[in-house]
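Thread: "does anyone have the structure for this chain?"

Original post by V.I.:
We have the sequence but no experimental structure in hand. Need at least a predicted one for the grant figures.
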Amino acid sequence: MAVKVSAVKLTANFEANLLAIESFWGEAGAPQRYARLLDELLDTVIPTLEGHPRIGRPFLERPAHSVEATALIGRLSARIGRGELREFLAGDYLILYASISDAVYLLAIRHHRQLSFDFEAFWPK
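Reply from O.Q.:
Generated one for you, tokens below.
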């Protein structure tokens, strides 16, 4: 049985996220970590999503806990139409993607260490 192959496409936001990750690892003195991410994307993540576009966890099945979140989910659902918004874990990275028809659109990627708060900005001097 032949495996259906979906085209995997990078969005401008995903590419911007990759640049931010490259900068993050450069500032951390570990540029090889970015190179490893690119290798993992090319060798594992993209081929996996090409053959199994529904492998990620459905993102929109999470319960909304606010009016704003409910409205955002409605807008996202309308934009995706019959497609699905899913999240895929690749090592320390969370990838958000949309599976629409015969294409997978990589929407966003974040390393868990990128998720931090700027506490100094909360209390200006």
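V.I.: this helps a lot. Residues 24 and 122 are 22 Å apart (CA to CA).
O.Q.: and The chain is about 45% helix and 25% strand.
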